[in-house]
Amino acid sequence: MNRRNNTFTGEENEVKLITLNPGHFHAALVQKNMLSQVDPTAHIFAPEGSDLDLHLERIDSFNSRPENPAGWKTEIHTGSDYLQQMLKERPGNVIITAGNNRDKAQYIKQAVDAGLNVLSDKPMVIDKNGWEVLVSAFESAGNNNVLMYDIMTERNEVTSTIQRQLAQNKNLFGELQKGSPENPAIIKESVHHLFKEVSGKPLRRPEWYFDVKQQGEGIVDVTTHLVDLTMWGAFPNKAIDYRTDINIVKASRWPTEVSLKQFEQTTGSPQFPDYLKDQVNDEVLSLYSNGEINFTVQDHHARVWVVWNYEPPAGGGDTHYSIFRGTRSNLVVRQGEDQHFKSTLYVEPSQGMAHEDLEPAFKDAMAGLQKEYAGLTYKKVDKGWELSIPDVHYLGHEAHFGTVAKNFYGYLIDGKLPDWEVQNMITKYYITTQALEMALNHQ
Question: Which of 20, 172, 237, 181 is nearest to 109 (CA)?
Answer without folding.
Answer: 20
